[in-house]
């Protein structure tokens, strides 16, 4: 693939996407209008037009070099999956033609038995169905027409991340329009959550990376002594981008533009070898699809440039990890941003209501937001003084927080020196700059959107958005129920905003979230502090949370419990694989290296003794003593880890097993790592089998 292109961005943009424009061009007018209608409504494609659409799609895809089609979906593994079928079909005269039927477009059947289902699928009904998500455009990638789809079991249970995301968007749309109707906006046809995902990642030399089984198998370094220079100088952040990296970024942008991803921002991040990518925001489900494409392209393009892209949340101990910022807001089909403070008192009342809905949602469902960013890998990052702690709180900015306090207490707002009466007073304008920039907050208001910063860099953003959409829908539903029955709407509204802010303001915090004081203060406020994934996951199936999802038809009870099982199993398996990889590296690489070095020193020692003259053997003796003492310690720690792995085979419930891994396996891994890292510092480089941190972080 060429990295240079003579086309301008506008000519290149979405050339590989079956966009609205292409549809209008290639479909008969009545078919186009009918399809558009179903797309806007998020409905299934009527069978009568499916064949015509499929054919036009195939003709277009073939013109882009496609030979295959695939239903592109997002199973619970967190990555995307697809099965490729070629368009090939045989005619009765034996000739081969390219064909794609309406049935093949609308619904695909695939063997679901190898995807995690959390017990939702018995093997005798292994079939899974993929159904076209008409709200997300089809595209051509690597010679395949990809049709974004939802994935469910034979009995209709969601087996993927997209189905519940679409359901959460529906409930949010419904409840938000009830609120807008109260403000006289019955003409709004759809409210959608908008999402812009900032993505952090590392780029390292592929050849060095391949020499590290820990990186290739687990995505992170399980060993590695600290280099003399880490990120101490902070000289990487926004620094000059090196030509090799620029070439990579250029090709990444180009590939993403072709796929209709609005690649926008790129820069160096805080840690050495760390970078960030951000697109323009778009509708939640499309942003989710696009972020999956971004992660896929990051890996593929890096590979073509002799690099390896690490998406892991904490590839290097002692160096900042990678996250994902989920910027979230609400928009109407008329383009209005519902979290934008308005120009008039009336609009401001509406803004405040939506704002309070989000505050209530974050407070009521702290646990779910925590779960939505919980994984074995993200546990290494959250609370490590580089990412938000495990405590969920939100930042409003000084000005907005002061306004809310004034409203709650019925006091004067300092700057205006008069009371803010909801629906009567104009709010002060919040300059975007003043709503800055508490970088320590997990959930920050940034002028006209919220930024959820806990999400891990490997995550699909479907999970966090399912929780956000549903939790906010629940607030809006409660508000709409009350306001629709109000005799005096204006007063009830003012009372409601005051009351709800007062009830939920404990979750609002503007200070330093990294500080010890906050942990103590949060405890006093009764906020949750679910420190690890093992601790957080069981809250997913608490009765209140089950009630939320079921009553909004986002998850059935079975689906929710299945998700709990899948997530818990993934947590346990991740740590299990890491532990086995550690044992393997120590046994087959580190121990032989340590022995080889010891042998070399012993040989020198012996040689010295055979020579005539009075040579000092102090250094050799010192090294041998130190190495053998560390080596015994390593052996002890290795055996202790192996014993813990053995103990993990005992019968336990899922939740208990997760706790066991957190308490026993992880700690045994940490202890083993410490001794190995100490050995790395004294064993000669030529014997050490793993490329060092300095090598990995500073060689590109
Ligand atoms: P920062 O690094 O300061 O957080 P960036 O400019 O890197 O900011 O990223 C901001 C992200 O927020 C971008 O992806 C942008 O498209 C997105 N964004 C902006 N407005 C909205 C909105 N109304 N809804 C959702 N996302 C938004
Ligand atoms: Mg950000």
Radius of gyration (Å): 28 Å
The rough form would be described as globular
Low-confidence stretches: 1-5
Describe the largest sheet: 9 strands, mixed
Number of strands: 19
Q: Count the helices. How many?
A: 22
Question: Span from first to last CA?
Answer: 22 Å
Structural class computed from helices and strand pairing: alpha+beta
Q: What small molecules accompany the polymer chains?
A: adenosine-5'-diphosphate, magnesium ion
* pLDDT averaged residue by residue: 91
Strand content range: 5-15%
Percent helix: 40-55%
Question: Brief description of this entry?
Answer:
With about 700 residues, the chain is an alpha+beta fold.
General description of the model:
There is one protein chain. By secondary structure, the protein is of the alpha+beta class. Helix content is 48%, strand content 13%. It is built from 22 helices and 19 strands. The strands form four sheets. Strands 9, 10, 11, 12, 13, 14, 15, 18 and 19 form a nine-stranded mixed beta sheet that branches. Strands 1, 2, 5, 6, 7 and 8 form a six-stranded mixed beta sheet that branches. Strands 3-4 form a two-stranded antiparallel ribbon. Strand 7 (139-141) and strand 8 (144-153) form a beta hairpin. Helix 9 (243-258) crosses helix 10 and helix 19 runs parallel beside helix 21 (654-682). The two termini are 22 Å apart. Residues 1-5 have low confidence and may be disordered. Residues 194-196, 198, 265, 278-281, 325, 327-329, 337, 448-449, 451 line the site of adenosine-5'-diphosphate.
């Amino acid at each position: 693939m060429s990295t240079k292109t003579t086309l301008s961005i506008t000519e290149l943009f979405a050339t590989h996407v079956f966009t609205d424009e292409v549809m209008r061009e290639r479909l008969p007018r009545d078919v186009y209008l009918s399809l558009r209608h179903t797309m806007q409504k998020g409905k299934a494609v009527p069978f009568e037009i499916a064949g015509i659409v499929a054919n036009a799609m195939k003709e277009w895809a073939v013109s882009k070099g496609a030979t295959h089609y695939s239903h592109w979906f997002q199973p619970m593994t967190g990555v995307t999956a697809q099965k490729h079928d070629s368009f090939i079909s045989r005619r009765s005269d034996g000739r081969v033609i390219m064909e794609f039927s309406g049935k093949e477009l609308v619904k695909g059947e695939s063997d679901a038995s190898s995807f995690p289902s959390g017990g939702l699928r018995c093997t005798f009904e292994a079939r899974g169905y993929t159904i076209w998500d008409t709200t997300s455009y089809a595209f051509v990638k690597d010679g395949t027409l990809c049709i974004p789809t939802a994935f469910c079991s034979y009995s209709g249970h969601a087996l993927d991340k997209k189905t519940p995301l679409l359901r959460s968007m529906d409930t949010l749309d419904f409840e938000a329009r009830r609120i807008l109707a109260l403000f006289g906006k019955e003409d709004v046809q759809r409210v959608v959550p908008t999402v812009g995902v900032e993505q952090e990642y590392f780029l390292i030399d592929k050849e060095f990376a391949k020499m590290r089984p820990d990186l290739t198998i687990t995505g992170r370094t399980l060993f590695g002594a600290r280099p003399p220079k880490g990120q101490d100088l902070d000289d990487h952040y926004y620094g000059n981008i090196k030509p090799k990296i620029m070439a990579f970024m250029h090709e990444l942008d180009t590939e993403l533009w072709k796929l209709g991803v609005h690649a926008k921002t790129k820069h160096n991040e805080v840690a050495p070898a760390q970078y960030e990518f951000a697109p323009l925001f778009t509708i939640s489900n499309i942003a989710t699809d696009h972020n999956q494409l971004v992660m896929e392209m990051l890996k593929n393009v890096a590979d073509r440039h002799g690099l390896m892209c690490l998406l892991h949340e904490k590839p290097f101990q002692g160096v900042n990890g990678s996250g994902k910022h989920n910027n979230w807001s609400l928009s109407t089909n008329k383009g209005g941003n519902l979290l934008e403070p308005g120009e008039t008192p009336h609009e401001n009342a509406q803004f405040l209501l939506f704002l309070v809905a989000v505050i209530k949602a974050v407070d009521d469902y702290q646990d779910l937001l925590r779960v939505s960013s919980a994984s074995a890998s993200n546990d290494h990052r959250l609370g490590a003084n580089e990412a938000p702690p495990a405590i969920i709180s939100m930042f409003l900015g000084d000005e907005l927080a002061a306004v809310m306090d004034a409203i709650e207490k019925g006091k004067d707002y300092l700057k205006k020196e008069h009371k803010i009466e909801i629906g009567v007073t104009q709010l002060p304008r919040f300059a975007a700059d003043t709503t800055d920039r508490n970088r320590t907050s997990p959930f920050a208001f940034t002028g006209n959107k919220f930024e959820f910063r806990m999400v891990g860099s490997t995550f699909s953003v479907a999970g966090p958005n399912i929780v956000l959409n549903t939790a906010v829908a629940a607030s809006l539903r409660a508000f709409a129920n009350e306001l629709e029955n109000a005799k005096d709407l204006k007063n009830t509204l003012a009372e409601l905003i005051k009351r709800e802010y007062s009830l939920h303001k404990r979750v609002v915090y503007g200070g330093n979230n990294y500080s010890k004081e906050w942990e103590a203060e949060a405890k006093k406020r009764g906020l949750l502090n679910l420190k690890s994934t093992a601790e957080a996951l069981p809250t997913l199936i608490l009765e209140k949370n089950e009630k939320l999802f079921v009553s909004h038809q986002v998850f059935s009870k079975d689906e929710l419990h299945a998700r709990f099982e899948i997530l818990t199993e993934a947590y346990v398996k991740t740590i299990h694989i890491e532990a086995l990889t550690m044992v393997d590296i120590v046994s087959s690489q580190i121990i032989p290296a340590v022995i080889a070095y010891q042998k070399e020193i012993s040989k020198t020692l012996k040689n010295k003794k055979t020579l005539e003259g009075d040579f000092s053997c102090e250094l050799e003796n010192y090294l041998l003593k130190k190495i053998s003492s560390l080596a015994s310690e390593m052996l002890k720690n290795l055996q202790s880890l192996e014993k813990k792995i053995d103990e993990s085979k005992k019968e336990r419930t899922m939740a208990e097993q997760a706790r066991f891994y957190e308490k026993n396996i992880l700690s045994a891994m940490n202890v083993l790592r410490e001794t190995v890292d100490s050995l790395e510092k004294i064993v000669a480089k030529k014997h050490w089998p793993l490329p060092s941190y300095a090598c990995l972080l500073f060689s590109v």
